[in-house]
Amino acid sequence: AGCEPIVCIIQVPRWLSTNKFEKGNNANGLAFSTLAAPTDYEKWGKIIYNIVYHYNVSKKLNVKYFEIWNEPGREYRRSSAEELFKLYKVAAEAALRADPNVKVGGLAFYAWDSEIPERRAYQQTKDFTNSWIYQFIKYASDNKLPLDFLSWHEYYSGPALEDETAVAMIRSWL
What we know:
Elements: E1 6-9, H1 41-58, E2 65-68, H2 81-98, E3 103-109, H3 122-125, H4 132-142, E4 149-152, H5 163-173
Parallel strand pairs: 1-2, 2-3, 3-4
Helix pairs in contact: 1-2
């Protein structure tokens, strides 16, 4: 028995955000200004590298899992799918440079079938290829990115599919 901690990296610093001037917070108290893609992906990569290096090289904590982002597509998130997929790419590559033994994944989708707003269509057709998870898996595969795990939150999202069917479908996409 035991547990494995997961470090969840869910925000960019305000000074690096493409949305740095927006006021207010979401329901969890996170500043809207930090819930957007970075203005400089090279700096974002350095931040991720330093986080992983700090935990696993400097402190020798050997954290195995690093989850990148949280609930893309929610109404309080301020970036496109392309921006967030690039955010993941840069973060995953930087994490593995800092410690090649870590496992990276994400994006902690708010539901397995959550849709990308700019690609909205599948709710009427049940074509899940416009879902965040499908598009993220495709992006990771097309760009040969590490994707050691997928994560999502299970809120009730309607009677689209049972959980077992959803998991089987997602596995078929991997």
